[in-house]
């Protein structure tokens, strides 16, 4: 069963989410954090959340600031804001009596999940899917306007047919982000999932995250999948694997 919800972001505007509730008693609860400019209804976020709910794990998927059905401007976000809003989403679940035990992050959301988990005592396990080992790597997507943004404060940026406003604080925050040290201090079981043929985030990123992680750590190769898990059955397969892997921690 899907239920639309809203909760305040760390910046103030409300974020829109969907609770995917199991038909029977839930054996645990978790969050799905979407990628860079994607959203709660992107194939990875939607299908994994729905698949885990079918496996008895209640999930919240939500749109980050200025994306999808959420309020605010995307340019007022950043990597730090994405982490802070993950904490807000977890607090929303805790306030309704279902604190998240599982954090799942796709792409840039995987990096955010690793950092946010360390601020959330209820989280017992973390999963990354196609995550970058350096969040600053996303600058390659907007490098043509980055210098203008730093100099002038803002600049329009076109991606996927959408026009977003890139802001100086966003660019500078992303440039200052660091992940590998956070992986070393995660102190949670970590499942790293990545396709060896990922053309958006190279699988070497998964190797760097896996090498930095302490045990217990696991790696699953998503053979045949693209970065966005759009190939038929791939997101559902990932959900089944996550369900089995996470079982001891729920």
Automatic annotation (TrEMBL):
Name assigned to this protein: Osmotically inducible protein OsmC
Similarity field: Belongs to the AB hydrolase superfamily. FUS2 hydrolase family.
Keywords for the protein's UniProt record, in alphabetical order: Hydrolase
Organism: Brachybacterium ginsengisoli
The keyword Secreted is assigned to this record: no
Domain AB hydrolase-1: 31-136
Entries under Gene3D superfamilies matching the protein: alpha/beta hydrolase
Signal peptide: none
Pfam family, one: Abhydrolase_1
GO terms, molecular function: carboxylic ester hydrolase activity
